[in-house]
């Protein structure tokens, strides 16, 4: 009995294929039916069937002619969705939207709703995408691909909190979908819920779902929480995972190394990132600032001074950079005196160059700190006190203070 069924099905399939091919190619020897010009003798239902047959063969060009003729004869929800599907497969997203946008969501098939949703995505019409995605998920809440894309767009619109709610709601029904688990982790991170984000990323790593984004985001989450060692561990893994290495990770890793006093390692990453990130002013000032701190930490004060001066080119209002240039000059002067006892004599009656630089920059720092309405934090008060102390000692003794002032 089973064998008879198989033979019968095979016979029907062959018959159907032969019928389709005959319909496609000829009605008479004089007037063949071309794919671009469906015959008027074919009724609408037959046109839809012919179009469907062409779609099964991935011949969207032939199918388009049949669907267009069917739509021309009668504009029903069915013909519109059939034609829209064909246009979607041909990447004509604008025309696909024009056919589907005003059909009530409740009257559309799941596939048609998805095509409308992703068409909005391809055309960057994110406002309409969000509305369409929400309507789709009301009917088909387990469509993970749509939900993940919707969450991504919400995060791009600074609505990460809404994305978290959607992803968590899905996870209550299915906690094993890696796409949604990744989506939830990223949404938590972007919503600045760093501890829950770290927990979610750990779950992904535990099942072998290791990605650059997960490692990088974990490193950054630990950094925001103040755990520099864990931040270093995961940023290093992210940097090693990515081929080629990514500039954003390199400079973040470099800064973390400097904060952990791993100065030489930090400088390697920062120099590597610098050329890749020019001319981003915000990032470049951070790179130069941390390079300066690394050079200061290794007692290469001249290089530190140069780097802080470069940082000032990107942010001339920073009090910290000005103060640090002064302090680095003080440290350089003390270093030179320790190496060369008669260092002062080289300058004759003039002030040693690093002393004059320290006086100038401390003076500029005090002027800017008191005149520009900066918030008077405890740290700023301490810096002002140290600057005054240095300048007072210089005026009193006509020589600089012998204590190094660390930036």
Q: What this model shows, in words?
A:
It is a single chain. The longest helix is centred in the first third of the chain and has 24 residues, at 2-25. This protein is mostly helical and 407 residues long. Mean pLDDT is 88; it is low at 1-41 and 401-407. The chain has 20 helices and no strands. Helix 12 (212-224) packs antiparallel against helix 13 (228-241), helix 16 (281-297) runs antiparallel to helix 17 and helix 17 (301-314) packs antiparallel against helix 18 (319-339).
Beta-strand residue percentage: under 5%
Count of DSSP E strands? 0
- Alpha-beta content class: mainly alpha
Give unreliable regions as ranges.
Answer: 1-41, 401-407
- The general outline is elongated
Total of helices: 20
Mean pLDDT: 88
Radius of gyration (CA) equals 35 Å
Span between termini = 89 Å
Seen as an oligomer or otherwise, the chain set is: single chain
Looking at this protein, list some descriptive labels.
407 residues, mainly alpha, disordered N terminus, disordered C terminus
Task: Please sum up the structure shown.
This protein is mainly alpha-helical.
How are the elements arranged and paired?
Layout: H1 2-25, H2 44-56, H3 60-73, H4 77-89, H5 93-100, H6 110-122, H7 126-139, H8 144-156, H9 160-173, H10 178-190, H11 194-206, H12 212-224, H13 228-241, H14 247-259, H15 263-277, H16 281-297, H17 301-314, H18 319-339, H19 353-371, H20 378-397
Helix pairs in contact: 2-3, 3-4, 4-5, 4-6, 5-6, 6-7, 7-8, 8-9, 8-10, 9-10, 10-11, 11-12, 12-13, 13-14, 14-15, 14-16, 15-16, 16-17, 17-18, 18-19, 19-20
């Amino acid at each position: 009995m089973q064998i008879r069924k198989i033979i019968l099905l095979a016979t029907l399939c062959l018959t159907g294929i032969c019928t389709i091919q005959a319909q496609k190619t000829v009605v008479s020897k004089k007037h063949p039916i071309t794919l671009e010009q469906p015959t008027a003798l074919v009724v609408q239902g037959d046109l839809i069937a012919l179009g469907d047959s062409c779609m099964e063969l991935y011949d969207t060009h032939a199918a388009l002619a049949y669907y267009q003729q069917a739509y021309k004869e009668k504009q029903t929800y069915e013909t519109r969705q059939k034609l829209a599907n064909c246009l979607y497969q041909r990447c004509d997203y604008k025309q696909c939207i024009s056919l589907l946008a005003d059909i009530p969501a409740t009257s559309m098939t799941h596939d048609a709703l998805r095509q409308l949703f992703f068409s909005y995505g391809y055309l960057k019409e994110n406002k309409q995408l969000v509305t369409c995605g929400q309507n789709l998920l009301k009917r088909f809440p387990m469509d993970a691909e749509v939900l993940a894309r919707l969450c991504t767009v919400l995060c791009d619109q600074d609505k990460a909190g809404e994305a978290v709610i959607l992803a968590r709601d899905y996870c209550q029904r299915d906690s094993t979908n890696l796409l949604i688990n990744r989506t939830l982790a990223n949404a938590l991170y972007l919503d600045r819920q760093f501890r829950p984000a770290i927990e979610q990323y750990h779950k992904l790593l535990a099942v072998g779902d290791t990605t650059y984004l997960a490692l990088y985001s974990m490193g950054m989450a630990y950094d925001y929480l103040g755990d520099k060692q864990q931040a270093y561990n995961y940023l290093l893994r992210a940097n090693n995972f990515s081929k080629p290495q990514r500039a954003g990770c390199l400079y973040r890793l470099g800064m973390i190394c400097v904060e952990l006093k791993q100065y030489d390692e930090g400088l390697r990453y920062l120099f590597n990132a610098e050329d890749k990130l020019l001319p981003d002013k915000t990032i470049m000032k951070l790179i130069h600032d941390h390079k300066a701190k690394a050079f200061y930490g290794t007692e290469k004060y001249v290089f530190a001074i140069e780097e802080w001066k470069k940082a000032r080119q990107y942010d001339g209002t920073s009090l910290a950079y000005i103060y640090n240039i002064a302090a680095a000059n003080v440290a350089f002067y003390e270093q030179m005196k320790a190496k060369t006892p008669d260092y002062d004599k080289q300058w004759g009656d003039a002030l040693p160059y690093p002393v004059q630089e320290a006086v100038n920059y401390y003076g500029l720092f005090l002027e800017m700190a008191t005149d520009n309405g900066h918030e008077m934090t405890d740290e700023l008060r301490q810096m002002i006190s140290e600057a005054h102390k240095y300048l007072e000692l210089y005026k009193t003794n006509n020589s600089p203070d012998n204590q190094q002032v660390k930036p």
